[in-house]
Amino acid sequence: MEDEEDPFEGGLTMKAQPADKPVQRLDAMSGGEKSLTALAFIFAIQRHNPAPFYALDEVDAFLDAVNAERVGELVDELAADAQFVVVSHRSAMLERSERAIGVTMQGDNVSAVTGIDLTGGEEAPADD
Q1: Where in this chain does the record put each RecF/RecN/SMC N-terminal domain (predicted)?
Q2: Total domain count, the chain
Q3: Which residue has the higher pLDDT, 5 or 7?
Q4: In what order do the strands lie in the sheet with 122-124?
């Protein structure tokens, strides 16, 4: 921490060591490595001091298929104790979901919202 006396006034410098790579600063990592490092940090905090709700927006966008699957498994495991709302286009997340909400653009530039309950396979009501 840049300011241990007042941690919210300073920043946080992170160094991490992705598998089979040297220790490096976060800004020197690839997008996937940054994502995994940030997620590892978030999930470590979650295990130490859990919150009841998490919102994750396309955290798997820069991950390869193997790591997207691992993150999906971890979110699925942690969802037993907290609610997760995850924005994702990846099947690794969607396959584990209880509900999915899709937004599509119609021909007249109006968004259409569709919800699906994946536990029973029935369409769920969604607001426009």
Answers
A1: 28-111
A2: 1
A3: 5
A4: 99-105, 111-117, 122-124
